Amino acid sequence: MKKVCFLFVMLVLVNVNVKGLTPTLDDDVLGLIVFKADLLDPDNKLASWNEEDDSPCKWVGVRCNPRSNRVSDLVLDGFGLSGKMGRGLMQLKFLNKLSLANNNLTGGIGVNLGQLSDLRVIDLSENSLSGSVPSGFFDQCGSLRSFSLAGNKFTGQVPDSLGKCSSLGAFNVSGNQFSGVLPLGVWALNGLRVLDVSDNFLEGEVPKEIGRLYNLREIKLRKNQFTGVVPDEIGACALLRSIDFSENSFSGSLPSTLQKLSLCNELDFHGNLLTGEVSEWIGEMGSLQTVDLSKNMFAGAVPSAIGNIRSLKVLNISGNGFSGSLPQSMVNCENIQSLDVSRNALTGFLPSWVFQLGLRSVSFSENKLSGSVFSAVSSSVANSHQNLQVFDVSHNELSGEIPSDIGKFSSLRLLNMSKNSLIGEIPETIGKLKALSTLDLSENQLNGSIPMEIGSAASLKDLILSRNLLSGSIPSSIGTCSSLTSLILSRNSLSGQVPVAMSKLADLQYVDLSFNKLTGALPKPLGNLAHLVSFNVSHNQLQGELPAGSFFNTISPSSVTGNPTLCGAAVNRSCPTVMPKPIVLNPNSTGTDPESIPQPLGRKKILLSISALIAIGAAAVIVIGIIFITVLNLRVRSTMSRSAAAVPLSGGDYSSSHTTDTNSGKLVMFSGEPDFSTGAHALLNKDCELGRGGFGAVYRTVLGDGRSVAIKKLTVSSLVKSQEDFEREVKKLGKIHHPNLVALEGYYWTPSLQLLIYEYVSGGNLYKHLHEGEEDGNRSSLTWNERFNIILGIAKSLAHLHHLNVIHYNLKSSNVLIDGLGEPKVADFGLARLLPMLDRYVLSSKIQSALGYMAPEFACKTVKITEKCDVYGFGVLLLEIVTGRRPVEYMEDDVVILCDMVRGALEEGRVDECIDERLQGKFPAEEAIPVMKLGLICTSQVPSNRPDMAEVINILGLIKCPSEGQEESG
Ligand SMILES: *[C@@H]1O[C@H](CO)[C@@H](O)[C@H](O)[C@H]1NC(C)=O
Ligand SMILES: *[C@@H]1O[C@H](CO)[C@@H](O)[C@H](O)[C@H]1NC(C)=O
Ligand SMILES: *[C@@H]1O[C@H](CO)[C@@H](O)[C@H](O)[C@H]1NC(C)=O
């Protein structure tokens, strides 16, 4: 750097005879080093520029004249240079070409540059140069061929001296802030081939002298403030290929002399004030490829001579007053790719050539086209379907149905048929449009439902179907349109729930489902959508709580209004319970569904009488069953004595070792020999009823050997699978053995009656231990250690089931039996597998006796039910055991949900108050509180947030013996 400063000082002081003083130093080396000293070179592109060199000719970006060895070209395009264009350049007396394009140079250009009289090319385009160009800049520009300042920040006028550049072939100052009038001398530069002054603030008219620029190939005046008419003389510029007068204020009509420009391929007059008609002369411009006359005030018919321009690729006449119909001759424009005639007053039918020519982009929007789209599409040629990417016929008067052939246009990205009078259904073939990004069919009279196939149009970003007559539900397949940002379905008659799958659409920004008939609660996971800008569900019949999340917490009330039972802060209506809500059964529904009787307080009288009726009915059926069984037993015995073979325990084909009588039924015991003869009377005795649940009543009976068994009579018989399926499932269940599971010992099957034979457990069920005997002041209750042991035992039994891929589905305290040693034994596992279809309806309507234990995903059609629903039930059960309270309690005018209550208490720091008061302080808080927290985690709303049962066992181990850590696991 020191040396450079020294050189620079020297240059300034001794600028006349440098060579004399330091004979080894080349003027050009000096000039370039000084030039470099003014620059910042972050990429070190000029590293080879070394002042110790004798000659700069090998430096990067430098070329010398081979004869004189003086620098002729300096080309540093795109070197990432910033800083100023310094005076060092002035030392390069023999410079021919200076090209510094695409850098970050700032400051102005010195007047001196114009003194380099050998310069032929100056390209300073795409920098950040500013200031005005000095008026004498072009005084010595006789050699200048090409000059570009494009893409800088120059201001002021283009200097008059430009007229002196008699050899100038290209002049480009586009993209600056030049103002005023172009010097008249410009129009005398008859060597000019390219004139580009676009994107400045230039004004004035284009003079007739333009006719003298007979070498002109390209003229670009785009985006200035030129006024006046387009002079007739332009027709004399016979070599013109490209005319861009767009975005100015030219007025009058287009001169018909344009027809002489037979080489012209680009004609752009868009965004002016041009009037009049475009007449048949345009057909003479046989080389035209791009014609843009949009946004003017042209009127009249589109000339049919346009069909003569075979080379035409792009025609845009949108935003004018063209009327009539498009000429049929356009069928000859076989190269046309883009046609935009939108915003005119065109009438007639949608021309079928539109589909025959293989266009990429077609817009007819905002005209007065009528007739059906159908006929135009169906008469189209098959092989042209591939090209169409944009098809916009919105805002016309088209009628008829959307042709299903639309599915053949496989490249479509935008399909807009909105604001017409289309009828019928949205064709399923829409799903074949894999590239479709925008589909707008709004404001028609379409009916039917949104086809499920919409999910196959996986590129959709904008789906707009508002203001139609659509009904049915929003297909959950919408969840596969993963790029969707706008979903506008407002003002239809859509019903059903908002699909949970919508919460998979992570890019969603605009959702409008307002003015439909949607019901149910908004899926909570919608709260996770991070990019929502608006979400309008107003005027539906939605209920329940708004999803939580940053967007929904501050949603505008107008977006949710008009849903009478929606609750949350935004609708100014508080929700009846705290956030996580299990499925709650209406206690009043007992009369219609005796299977699902909960045990609501204060309704016992009615319940008793109903259960009495049921018991009598059940007993009657059982009697018949028992007679069959007895008959069967005799047969089995005789068969067995003959074959001297025991009934196979497992894995075998039972039917082969039994006499099967389809009329009477089939009895299978997994071990030993059944004998019900002494138990029959017991089944007649209502006192022997042990209990009843979602799957049926349970009776105790004593076998011949004096052993007790529990017999469950399945009351969901109409739902039971075929005999084959039933037996297969029961056999599977029969193989499951665990100390904490009630063993299934056998079964009996007839088409109308099914019995399951279980191990009898003497100690009663957990429900009784926890909740009964309160009234009669019997306070002898389970100790903390007993409760903990029960929790652990249940956890182990569930872990075992889940390990075998069996989901219990029906966990509740009345299904946990306590044996003589106080060990829990879980009953009723896996029975849902006996139902013909494991669907949510069946699960929630037939097993909903598990009031309060049922995981929330049962309410969501789209969330897969996994073993995590048992974890939820376990969590509720755990809280029930610790608090001694029922999962759901009906108070005078309130419903208390146990896990909400505990969660609330935990948040307020008084969780120990929830612990069963019968423990009367006799519990270790350091165990009880973590256990309750575990229960709350298990009752997480989102299944994946719940631990699995093996983890639960680990955690319980850690709680009981924190110091022993992991060793306790399992
Ligand atoms: C110019 O500078 C800006 C920041 O000052 C930088 O972002 C940009 O990449 C530079 N351009 C070139 C061509 O180096
Ligand atoms: C003028 O220069 C700009 C910027 O380099 C370029 O984009 C444009 O094509 C040039 N104009 C003509 C007519 O070549
Ligand atoms: C149950 O019925 C009673 C009396 O008909 C009624 O007051 C109560 O609101 C009902 N409860 C529910 C949850 O519907």
From TrEMBL:
Residues reported to bind ATP: K713
Membrane protein topology class: Single-pass type I membrane protein
Subcellular location, record wording: Cell membrane
GO cellular component annotations of the record: plasma membrane
Pfam families assigned to the protein according to its UniProt record, in alphabetical order: LRR_1, LRR_14, LRR_8, LRRNT_2, PK_Tyr_Ser-Thr
Ranges for domain Protein kinase: 684-959
SUPFAM superfamilies attached to this UniProt entry: L domain-like, Protein kinase-like (PK-like), RNI-like
An example molecular function term from Gene Ontology annotations: protein serine/threonine kinase activity
InterPro entries documented for this protein: Kinase-like_dom_sf, Leu-rich_rpt, Leu-rich_rpt_typical-subtyp, LRR_dom_sf, LRR_N_plant-typ, LRR_R13L4/SHOC2-like, Plant_LRR-RLKs, Prot_kinase_dom
BP-aspect Gene Ontology terms: defense response; response to other organism
PROSITE patterns linked to this entry: PROTEIN_KINASE_ATP, PROTEIN_KINASE_DOM
Highest taxon, organism lineage: Eukaryota
Residues passing through the membrane, by range: 606-632
Predominant localisation class: membrane
Keywords for the protein's UniProt record, in alphabetical order: ATP-binding, Cell membrane, Glycoprotein, Leucine-rich repeat, Membrane, Nucleotide-binding, Receptor, Repeat, Signal, Transmembrane, Transmembrane helix
Range of residues in the leader sequence: 1-20
Similarity comment: Belongs to the RLP family.
Identification of the protein by name: Leucine-rich repeat-containing protein
Organism: Artemisia annua
